[in-house]
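Fold sample X.
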Amino acid sequence: MWTERFEKAPVGKFNRDEYSRDRARIIHSAFFRRLQGKTQVLGLGESDFYRTRLTHSLEVAQICGGVAEFLKDKYSDDDKILNLIPDQNLIESIGLAHDIGHPPFGHGGEVALNFSMKENGGFEGNAQTIRICTKLGEYSDEDGLNLTRRVLLGLIKYPGYYSSLVKKELYHEGNGLNLDSYVPPKCLFDCDKKNVDWILEPFTNDRELFMNSFKEYPKKHHKPIYKSFDCSIMDLADDVAYGIHDLEDSIALGLVSESMWKKKVVSKLVDNLKKYPLASSIDNYTELLFSGTNRTRKSAISKLVHYFIINSRVEKQEIFTHDLLDYQAKLTAIAREELDILQEFVFANVIKTPEVQTLEYKGQQMIVKLFEAISANPSRLLPKKYFKKYNDQNENVRIICDYLAGTTDDYATKLYHKIFTPSNGSIFDKL
């Protein structure tokens, strides 16, 4: 059941593990390789050190594997949980593919495409991941990367459709120069419902609750509540990578200082009635992180990642009838708070700084203008294979969105200048 695919894989003399096959398909996919040219936090070209979406995905996969191995040891006497914990190829496949749908220019590119698609089903990076894996990937004409059902289930981070979660009254048209209100809902695309239904086919009794449960906010889109067990491991690993590895980038590149760290992180961990465990060794972490040498900084980062891995656990929700939905991997409550402090520090002192936001905004505006130009001139500006799809699907602008979402930061920048900068571009520049 869980190793089934849309299309059956060919059977040869050597029977490969199905999740090993998934892992190989993801790694060799052009969509995965393009992640090396997509922004994680910092703009490409800023340094040869910082992380891209590709290196981030590799780290998430590694942490996923670490969490799974720790949980197997922790619950070695509980056969029910032990049999549920995914093997290495399965969980690493989910970690490797989890960001495969994210567009160029990070969050800015995502908002720009959602703005451009506001009347046509919207855009969201996690939803595009499912779309690539089930429809756009190169291993099948109709079924994308044609991954196993369980890997696809692990990639559904937000089980709910755009039309059910979006609050369009939050969108403010303006003049396109400020797109802050066009942050998309975390979702799946309505146009991919057929494939999502296939993924969720085994959950006869739980599907409606899984797909139609969300938190409501007065000034935000609705947000789905549930995820599968495998996805909860990936989500935990993603948070650790964001809070720890992106912290390493910011320190190595001098974006945050030791005094900022002590004021915004150390003080919260030490001067707190909750007695955070990290506080007992925070002076040592601080010394290693800000030593100025790569070796000692790496040592601190490794120890921090290990700390959060060994503070993971499995909980049963008592909500769903199927164990793959009812069991969840989580951090202990206190470790979750500690990680939140680290994530908030990175968000406030790196991601939201004017320096980073200026680069994100520039990329955002390029995507908007590219979408407008291509939509008005599809026969002239779309590559041939995309124009054929566009025509075959009755001038479906989702095809234009797919094209731009699949580009790298560098490709999108070159395309922008090829179209809009008179002195740039050549007929020998292949699209």
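Fold sample Y, listed below.
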Amino acid sequence: MSGFIDRPCPIRRIGDGQRNHFFGYYDKTPWDDLGRYLLSNQVPIMTQDLDGGEVAEVGYFDLEEEDSFKVIGSTTAWNWQMGCQLQWLRTPGEQRIIYNTRAMGPEITEFPYADFRANVYDCASEEVRELPLPIYAVAPDGACALCVDYARFEATDRAIGYRPTHRLTGFRAAHATTAPEPAPDDDGVWRMDIESGDFELILPLRRLYDFEHASSMDEAVHWVSHLQIAPDGERFVFVHRWTEHAGDETGFLHRLFTCNVDGTNLRLLESTRKPQPLANPTWKDDHSVIVWGPHDGSMHYHLYDDRDGSVEAIGAGTLTENGHMSYTNDGRWILTDTYPNQETNHRRLLLYEIATGTCYMIGEFFADPDIEKHNRCDLHPRFSPDNRFVTIDSVHEGSRQQYLVDVSELTG
């Protein structure tokens, strides 16, 4: 029987809470493969507008050693939503971590972005290697990354941008935070080899501007977000956005695309004809993408088959709010959250059993309404490798912390 069940699960804060901790986005996991180490950003502040000078320490908790925290580096290239895109490189036989940083070396004009780079940290040797581009999405095998311009985000969608300093003069350094070039043909999505650092532009923004062009694109600024590579590493999903009023998300228009990781076989899955939400896509498997958005006049979680374009509504009548969703490894459960209730300011954490259509509310968390939207703390829930635990970021206890939720009685 389908329905909605209140089922709070055991929860505990990770760490001692002396400093603020958070991981970031929903589309990657803080867990290592064995479920022992948990990546985190560590900062002295809970919230404030960022000017690009604030330092975040990056590292990981050891859940088997009383949540001790090991610092592996620091960065000033971060924001409250995504952090510094901290994530594991899952190369067989190695344990490495990658995260975004601000360029600190000599002037390098042949790199696309003046300000931003990425660091690779080797857990065994503790050696650090710099890469020429900041990363967004990393392939499941750790071989390559997809890269974009975080200064363009700062101008279009402040919550996910990095404030540029323009200390250097790379060929994209002319980007301004107020008026970026609308749809350049020399910037967009880059593919970078993790080992060599070689990079190439695989999807220029001008190509998206020209693809089934609409008149609403003429005077708009364009960008891409929500990039995620499929489990088999062959294709990636992303959202193409454009607006004439940068910074005002109520006027954003959206299209959902998939593409081969070399930039070929661009495929349009969905397009909004008016400003309405289309966000937070994620892969269910190698060929299926779920997203919150409109299709045929209805707003639901929709599951798209990337091979034939067929669409299925998921949880209609039960999952009725936008959130950040992911699947268990066996595809039996969907984990998601909600944005704050306008009356109570509570966010809900939900587990949806696909076979029965039953939705369990496993937690509810207060979010201070005085925290500005671009500095907010979404729950961004993420499964552990064995699907028995969930981690979230939350501010319900008055500081920004990561929490561990035990869902093993439901997921087995």
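Sample Y note: Residues 150-156 form the longest helix (7 residues).
Also: Helices lie at 150-156, 205-210, 408-411.
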